[in-house]
Structure formats: structure tokens, C-alpha cells
Specification:
The structure is a single chain. By secondary structure, this protein is of the alpha+beta class. The chain has 3 helices and 7 strands, in the order H-H-H-E-E-E-E-E-E-E. It has 2 domains: 43 residues, no CATH class; 75 residues, Beta Barrel (OB fold (Dihydrolipoamide Acetyltransferase, E2P)).
Length: 154
């Protein structure tokens, strides 16, 4: 009797385990596809740009910085400071030659902002990139700090 019950239980469990289970699939980006991409955005995985999104002339020209504005240095971020001794306008970037208090000069690239030669600036410190080429200026900088935050200090 016990053998029959155990055999019956095994058969029931085996049959239950053999039933078709719902297959799990990788999630799709249906919500993103329905919303579309911003106007001017290149297609990604067959998604088309959102026709309802307002197009900006900068995006249409391919400016990856369209809509970005210079920002102040956030609290707690390591900084450097110095006097602007030279400025070069590279269109998408503003190149500042900054002389630190110890006399050392460094080139800093930032988003275009209001700054004048002789102004004292503070910038979010980052490692300098060696031999940085600027196509807009047709120049290679020996070392260039790309900073996301630069501000004029009084």
C-alpha cells in the first residue's frame, strides 16, 4: 500500500513538472519605442525620432551640447583656482589658460560662459589629458583639463 501511494505521488509530481510553463523573455523597450526618441536623435535599434518633440537648431546641426549650460562647482568637489591669462573660443568649448597662484599654467576646457581675461576662476579639478587635439582650433594642447564646472570667483 505504501509503495503504491509513493509511486502515485511520484507520477503526479512528474506529470505536474512536465506541463508547459510560461516562457520568460527578455524585457523589451516597448515604452521607449512608443514614446520615440527626441527630435534630431539618431535612430537606436530601429526606433524613430519623436515627431512631437520640439526640434532645436543646435540638435539638428549635431551639437551634442545643445541645451547644456555652464554650472557652478558643486560643494565637496576638488577644485583648482587661478587667473585667466588667455581665452580661445572653440565654438562648443571655451579654452581657458589658467595661471595658478604657484605660477603653473594649465589649459581648461569648459562650456561657453561669460569670463574675461584677468578674471579669477575656480574649476572642478580633473586629470589633464595629454596631447589633446582640438579640431575647431586646429591645435593640439600639451595637456588639457576637461571640466564640467567652471565659475568666476570674486
Amino acid at each position: 500500500m505504501k509503495t503504491t501511494v509513493v509511486a502515485l505521488m511520484i507520477a503526479v509530481l512528474a506529470l505536474a513538472g512536465c506541463q508547459d510553463k510560461p516562457k520568460t523573455e527578455a524585457p523589451t523597450n516597448q515604452n521607449q519605442q512608443a514614446a520615440g526618441l527626441p527630435a534630431g536623435h539618431p535612430p537606436i535599434d530601429g526606433q524613430a525620432a519623436n515627431a512631437n518633440a520640439p526640434a532645436t537648431t543646435d540638435t539638428a546641426k549635431g551639437d551634442p551640447h545643445a541645451g547644456l549650460k555652464p554650472m557652478a562647482v558643486p560643494a565637496g568637489v576638488p577644485t583648482q583656482a587661478g587667473k585667466v591669462v588667455q581665452m580661445l573660443d572653440g565654438g562648443q568649448y571655451l579654452y581657458l589658460e589658467v595661471q595658478h597662484d604657484d605660477g603653473k599654467k594649465v589649459w581648461v576646457a569648459c562650456l561657453p560662459m561669460k569670463v574675461a581675461k584677468g578674471d579669477r576662476v575656480k574649476y572642478a579639478d580633473a586629470p589633464a589629458l595629454p596631447n589633446f587635439p582640438s579640431k575647431a582650433l586646429n591645435r593640439t594642447f600639451d595637456a588639457l583639463v576637461l571640466s564640467s564646472a567652471v565659475e568666476v570667483v570674486k
